[in-house]
């Protein structure tokens, strides 16, 4: 009589098994699945390291080129580039990614900055809003972190807002606030107003608190920005404010841009995330600067 052997499928491990097969074989197959998963993770890490090396050596990579070269879908490549950006290793751009720039003259656009560290900026903005009281006069300079602060301030019903940022003034148009947009020459890269007219107007102003975004923060040097005209307007803002609060994510520390705004001694408080370098944290506390970590 012919022996009938029935096939069955092990749903958990995706392994085809035959009745009468040694159970140890199934265990070995499951172990193999785990090994395959670990190997897959290694392949992902290796692929990302390869992409990073291309970004660093060539300065720019394109999603389409990487997809064809590596034989990987464009969706997967985009996820890899987003992962590298989240770790501060590359900067996403239209259709690909570019090498992180760190020179003193590097001045990314407002649109480029908006894509970076959005979660940290949201937490910083929420902490900044807690420092404000109804009826106060608040000053905001231009930038994506201060834009987030402006959005967080919408919970209030009575504030006076002074800013040199066209985009912030526009966003607060439908609020009950009195919004004062200082005059000046428009910097299209940052949507900010700068120049002698802006400085003259600020000389006549007074604010209870200033939230100041920065491009570089070296505790020994102070806070800096890549644009000379912007630094002069920011300095005038500091002079016009009773309390100065720097709002920036931790990647801005140990970095210097072209123009110094003010030394660290002119700052009252800093709001940043928990990834601030330890030496910067200790230096700020030693200078009696209030440090709020979010």
Give the mean pLDDT. Answer: 84
> If you compute it from the alpha carbons, what radius of gyration comes out, rounded to the nearest whole angstrom?
26 Å
Secondary-structure content class:
alpha/beta
Order of helices and strands: EEHEHHEEHHEHEHEEEHEEEHEEEHE
CATH topology description of the largest domain? Rossmann fold
Helix content: 25-40%
* Strand-residue proportion: 15-25%
Contiguous helical run count: 10
Overall shape: it is: globular
- Per CATH, the class of the largest domain reads Alpha Beta
List how many beta strands DSSP finds: 17
**Biggest sheet descriptor:** 7 strands, parallel
The name of the CATH architecture of the largest domain is 3-Layer(aba) Sandwich
| Alpha carbon gap, first and last residue | 76 Å
| Major sheet: arrangement of strands | 8-7-6-11-14-16-17
The unreliable regions are 1-20
Overall tally of structural domains: 2
Short overview:
The chain is α/β, with parallel strands linked by helices and 294 residues long.
């Amino acid at each position: 009589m012919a022996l009938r052997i029935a096939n069955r499928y092990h749903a958990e491990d995706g392994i085809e098994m035959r009745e009468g097969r040694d159970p140890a074989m199934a265990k070995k197959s499951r172990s193999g699945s785990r090994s395959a998963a670990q190997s897959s993770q290694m392949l992902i890490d290796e692929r990302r390291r390869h992409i990073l090396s291309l970004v660093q050596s060539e300065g720019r990579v394109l999603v389409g080129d990487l997809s064809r070269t590596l034989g990987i879908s464009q969706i997967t490549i985009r996820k890899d580039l987003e992962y590298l950006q989240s770790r501060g290793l590359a900067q996403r751009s239209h259709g690909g990614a570019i090498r992180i720039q760190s020179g003193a003259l590097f001045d990314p656009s407002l649109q480029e900055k908006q894509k970076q560290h959005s979660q940290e900026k949201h937490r910083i903005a929420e902490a900044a809003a807690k420092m404000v009281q109804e009826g106060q006069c608040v000053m905001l300079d231009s930038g994506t972190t201060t834009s987030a602060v402006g959005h967080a301030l919408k919970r209030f019903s009575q504030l006076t807002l002074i800013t040199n940022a066209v985009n912030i003034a526009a966003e607060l148009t439908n609020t009950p606030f009195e919004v004062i947009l200082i005059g000046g020459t428009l910097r299209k890269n940052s949507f900010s107003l700068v120049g002698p007219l802006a400085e003259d107007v600020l000389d006549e102003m007074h604010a209870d608190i200033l939230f100041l975004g920065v491009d570089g923060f070296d505790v020994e040097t102070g806070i800096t920005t890549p644009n000379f005209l912007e630094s002069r307007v920011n300095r005038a803002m500091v002079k016009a404010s009773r309390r100065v609060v720097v709002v920036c994510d931790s990647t801005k520390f140990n970095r210097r841009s072209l123009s110094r705004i003010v030394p660290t001694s002119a700052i009252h408080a800093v709001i940043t995330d928990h990834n601030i370098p330890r030496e910067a944290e200790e230096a700020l506390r030693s200078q009696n600067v209030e440090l709020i970590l979010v």
